[in-house]
Amino acid sequence: MRLSNIDIYTNDKNVIKLIESSFKVQNIFSEKKLIYKKKSSKIISNYRSLNKIKNTESDLAISYGFGLIFKNKNIKKYKFGIWNIHPGDLPSFRGRHPITAAFLKDKKKIGVSIHQIDEKIDRGYLLGKSFVARKYIDDENSIKKKMFKKLPMLISTAKKNFFSNKKIKLKKGTYYKTFFNGINIENSKKYSHTYILNASKAQKSYGGIWVNNKKFIDCFFYKKNLMKKNSEIIICKNNKKLIMVSK
User: Which of 5, 50, 109, 114 has the highest CB neighbour number within 10 Å of its CB?
Assistant: First the structure.
């Protein structure tokens, strides 16, 4: 079945461009001022106007990285509901920051899922899922770039599964807390060097982490040739070393 207009709920211009390659976009809702090149068929709206919309010409809405928890009355405005692009393996990694949670669990593959939402956080029906490989040099931004390359095919899979009724009811899984307050490691000797490196890479895009009462913006496994003026060695559990980089 061919979809007509859709709405998008996101703050990410890259995601808008990707979705535009598969759908005709009618409205774009953002939690903040979104500077984006408009076309005559599009409206850029503040998300707070959502509750004022009684009817919509769009059959479907797609969300990504959006902070609003949609109520049933808003979901039902769309003939085919609201689909969410979740940068995590559902239902194993629910929550606002699934990439950070997966890093801290030392996952070597990071999932990206598309699901038809209900009122519960990161629940509903799974429509498609894929994985990207993660290396220790990766941070959240590099993982997202890998995910975005997979999105066109994943969106196609989601459409196919939805209209052939191959959606899968999501189980409760695991919900992880948010990391809006960052990560603070008071004593590096109590944590493995892998955990601290993972925490640093996960939070690099957000300004880094606190270790031993000092802020660091990046981290590397110890090698002499990686030492720079703005770096220092910290000792972790089992006397393992890391190079921490400050501003």
Answer: 114
